[in-house]
Amino acid sequence: MRFDVISLFPDMFGAVRDVGVTGRAHRQQRWQLQVWNPRDFTHDVHRTVDDRPYGGGPGMVMLAEPLEHAVAAAGQARAEATPSVILMSPTGRRFDQSVAQELADGPGAIVVCGRYEGVDQRFIDRCVTHELSIGDFVLSGGELAAMAIIDSTVRLLPGVLNTADSALQDSFHETLAGLLDSPHYTRPEEYQGERVPEPLLSGHHANIERWRREQSLKLTAQRRPDLILKAREQGRLSAADEKFLQMLDR
Questions:
Q1: What is the pLDDT of residues 89-139, one digit of tens each?
Q2: Is pLDDT of 63 > 90?
Q3: Less Cβ around it within 10 Å: N or C end of the chain?
Q4: What are 139-198's pLDDT values in tens digits?
Q5: Residue 160 domain-assigned?
Q6: Does residue 94 sit within a domain?
Q7: How far is CA 13 from CA 5, 22, 31, 125, 190, in A?
């Protein structure tokens, strides 16, 4: 697994390369990261990477040529002949757990981080294979979004998490039918007058699993009912799930 990132701020990516789960995995060589600065592919004394937009308007637009040359250099450094080129963009496909799994199942990608008002469309048309968005909001640049995508993808790689089942219990994972995860508790059994729910203390595995499933259903119904509808459409809710959801509606 290798990510090549095109960014004007390469130092930002030390956060995923050096720290936490992804940092440990990088040191273990479970994934690779190379950051390419478009300014290194300019030819003027000012190392210009942006210019005013045609037609007027606020802000600046990233030039196509430095970005294309950076992508070409990154592509030559990779093993696969035609790597995926992902542009972080608010107009892209919504990134979710299924997209993270798709990336984790592949060789990685070249990720382009835009800045300013946007990126010259001709670069997008010529070089970009996918556009991804992490939500309906705008950031100052694509770096934070790219790091979120890298983090969520790398943690799915075999051996990255200390306990392989950890990823299987995450919110949105297919083992939860795409629902939200249930609440978690640890010691002490009582904190500030609140006790750990009795099923978790019972030692009865079937009861524990059922409690967790019901709490997952309850939390999802309250906060993300759209995920309930999606799971139902995909046939991922059992008869017991539906019965519990009916009880919630009473």
A1: 999 999 999 999 999 999 999 999 999 999 999 999 999 999 999 999 999
A2: yes
A3: C
A4: 999 999 999 999 999 999 999 998 755 655 566 667 678 999 999 999 999 999 999 999
A5: no
A6: yes
A7: 9, 11, 14, 26, 41
pTM of the model: 0.89
**CA trace torsion 103, 79, 31, 99 (10° rounding):** 0
Residue with tokens 């950890």: 166
Q: What pLDDT is attached to residue 70?
A: 98
Q: In degrees rounded to 5, what are phi and psi of residue 76?
A: -65, -25
* Contacts of 42 by beta carbon, 8 Å cutoff, 6+ apart: 48, 49, 66
Question: In this structure, which amino acid lies at residue 42?
Answer: T
Same domain, 139 and 191: no
CATH assignment at residue 198: 1.10.1270.20
> 56 is in which domain, residue-wise?
2-154
Is the peptide bond between 188 and the residue preceding it cis, with omega within 30 degrees of 0? yes
Helix/strand/coil for 74: helix
Kindly state whether residues 199 and 134 are assigned to the same domain.
no
Give the pLDDT confidence score for residue 220 in this predicted structure: 96
Residues acting as catalytic residues: 90, 117, 155, 170
Shared-domain flag, residues 150 and 180? no
Cβ contact 39:49 at 8 Å = yes
Structurally, how many domains does the chain consist of?
2
Which of 99, 119, 47, 39 lies closest to 73 in space, CA to CA?
Answer: 39
The reply to whether 234 and 124 lie within a common domain is no
